[in-house]
Design goal:
The protein is α/β, with parallel strands linked by helices. The chain is built from 18 helices and 20 strands.
Length: 614
């Protein structure tokens, strides 16, 4: 599908801006109907981002101006999970998004399209509006208590895993505590839990517009709510469609639910054709609302007295490439050079990073004098894929081209003293390759890399990838010293075929590494030789700062493939290795993220002293 024109923008209160994307039709439509898309919250928002973007583009291509956005405290918008009044702020965000779309697109009516809790918010937001032409609720959360229970269940499962797994599994974690719930790194405070728990869409039947409910086809859904709507005389359509699970998969594997998208397009078109008794007037923006624009001033997350500015950047390079620049408020007019940090996607998660970590880090470091650019490499988040490249490729071989382009952009537009690159997982991989390519970087901070070599065409979903073999083998070695684990083995409670496969793969890996060491001594060329790449990455001024979660498999891979050179480079100060205790692969607990932030300060201070202190 050809994308309509899309523009990043900030809107809402001048002291607490919201971020969104406006998708505009190529030609001005005859109707005056627009669409506001309301995303889910938490990890569901991360997973559904690609689908929301696709729907917005499809609607604009069909002639409907569309706005997708981040709620207050979410994504690229201002605020934090722990701010008070989350539910009220999210509902206000929906209303502000409606006003912004009407302001910039000159529509006078909107349809609201919501997914999961976004559908709940869209439904509630209609209560105070007379300009909503229809609501589409995709897999809506009709019972707030059920959503809170789901988050609590994730916390219990994560706690069980920590108690029973020798090496904590990489990926998302969750926990429950006295002050709230944390699931996949996103927090619901007790106040937020209580507010959500009181919600029930089954009792929400006061709609002045038609409602279209799209339930998933694999579980019971919104039957009671739709029955109550019909009984109340609301025009309601209810269908069950496939595609939900694909839409909510990990961003690297998400699949757009095309049947759902087509139903959304058809239903919105029917709303546009429906007769309108009287058109509501265009509402003036609420007092204190900033003009829609491409930048916004934020209060720092770490120092309330230090304001920062964020600017949405679109750079053309064989397609639109997108990033967000965080910097001290007046950095663009300062004569003093400042250090810069480039943040690269972790996996296929957009530039907010896993559990919104990149947004937090960018604002934290910007408040201390750094210029921070967090980008979507081509084909990820909101950046277009380069010609001939797949849409979602976390290990794209063109990432070096993207990094080079962004570094050049920074140098051309800001006074930079030194540049540093930081990335988690695949972002660490690309950072390492940038160092090998001798890009002008003072340091590269590589957080939990799980591979140092990737070739085009390699699948992301290998049944037993190398890092999984390393992690499981470490767990089995630890379990071998525990008599209780042997009793489980004898009782048939252990996946014996998997254990045998891991042991065999592990033995094969060690044989391969010994063979490679011998070939190196004999000066026989070796394909994918980490020793040679480490030498190339460190034979100039770039410092490699490795940061590993305690027990993450990447550290073992580094030492195994890098051999004695790793220790040698540490002794000469060209490489440093730091462990972060009590952390999983993506730092999905608040305590782990706090520890990581302190480690990153130590890494960066070795190379550059910002103009202020954290």
């Amino acid at each position: 599908m050809t994308r309509a024109a899309s523009t990043p923008l900030y809107f809402g209160p001048s002291d607490r801006s919201l971020f969104g994307w406006l998708h505009q039709p190529a030609i001005q439509p005859l109707h005056r109907l627009g669409v506001v898309l309301c995303s889910p919250i938490g990890q569901e928002d991360v997973n559904a981002h690609g689908t929301v973007r696709f729907i917005a583009n499809a609607l604009a291509t069909a002639g409907f101006p569309s706005l997708r956005f981040d709620y207050d405290g979410c994504g690229d918008s201002a605020g934090h999970d722990r701010d008070p009044g989350r539910l009220a702020a999210w509902l206000a965000s929906v209303s502000l998004a409606i006003d912004a779309l009407k302001q910039v697109s000159r529509v006078d009516r909107v349809c609201l399209v919501g997914i999961r809790f976004g559908a709940t918010l869209a439904s509630l937001a209609t209560a105070s509006r007379h300009d909503v032409a229809g609501v589409i609720a995709i897999a809506p959360v009709t019972n707030g208590r059920a959503l809170v229970r789901d988050w609590k269940a994730m916390g219990l499962v994560a706690g069980w895993r920590k108690r029973t797994t020798a090496t904590p599994p990489p990926g998302n974690g969750a926990s429950t505590s006295a002050d709230g719930i944390e699931a996949a790194g996103f927090i619901l405070t007790n106040e937020t839990c209580n507010a959500i728990g009181k919600l029930s869409l089954t009792e929400r039947t006061e709609f002045a517009c038609p409602v279209f409910v799209i339930d998933r086809d694999d579980v019971s859904g919104s039957d009671r709510w739709t029955e109550n709507l019909k009984a109340a005389g609301v025009s309601v359509q209810h269908v069950r469609l496939s595609g939900y699970l694909g839409m909510m998969s990990d961003p690297a594997f998400t699949k757009v639910p095309h049947e759902i998208v087509q139903q959304v397009l058809t239903w919105v078109a029917s709303c546009a054709l429906a007769p309108v008794a009287s058109r509501p007037p265009l509402r003036e923006a609420p007092e204190g609302t900033r003009p829609v624009g491409s930048s916004a001033v934020f209060t720092s997350t770490s120092n309330d007295a230090s304001a920062i500015r964020e600017t949405a950047i679109v750079r053309e390079d064989n397609g639109a490439q997108f990033g967000i620049l965080s910097e001290p408020h007046r950095a663009d007019v300062s004569d003093d050079p400042a250090p810069a940090i480039l943040l690269i996607n972790s996996g296929a998660v957009r530039r907010i990073g896993p559990n919104r970590l990149y947004t937090t880090l960018a604002r934290h470091f910007a408040s201390a004098g750094y210029i921070v650019l967090r980008v979507d490499i081509s084909g990820l988040g909101d950046s277009d894929a380069h010609a001939g490249q797949p849409e979602v490729a976390p290990y794209t071989n063109l990432a070096s081209r993207d990094i080079e382009g962004w570094l050049a952009w920074l140098k051309d537009r800001r006074r930079i003293s030194d540049s540093h690159l930081l990335g988690i997982c695949s972002g660490a991989y690309h950072g390492f390759k940038a160092a090998v390519a001798r890009m002008p970087l003072a340091s590269v901070v590589l957080i939990n890399p799980v591979t140092f070599f990737w070739h085009e065409g390699m699948p992301l979903d290998l049944p037993l990838p190398e890092h999984q073999v390393v992690r499981l083998a470490a767990g089995y070695r630890q379990a071998a010293m525990n008599p209780q684990k042997w009793r489980k083995l004898l009782a048939g409670e252990v996946d014996l075929p998997l254990a045998i496969k891991v042991v065999m793969r592990s033995a094969m890996r060690h044989t391969q590494f010994r063979t490679r060491s011998l070939r190196r001594l004999m000066r026989i060329p070796i394909k994918d030789d980490l020793v040679q790449e480490l030498k190339a990455a460190t034979d100039h001024s770039t410092q490699l700062e490795f940061v590993f979660s305690d027990g993450d498999p990447g550290m073992s891979i580094l030492y195994e493939q890098g051999g004695s050179l790793v220790n040698s480079l540490q002794r000469t100060g060209k490489v440093s290795i730091t462990r972060v205790a009590e952390a999983d692969h993506t730092f999905s607990t608040e305590a782990a993220r706090s520890s990581l932030c302190m480690v990153l300060w130590q890494c960066l201070r070795r190379h550059e002293h910002p103009r202020t202190t954290p």
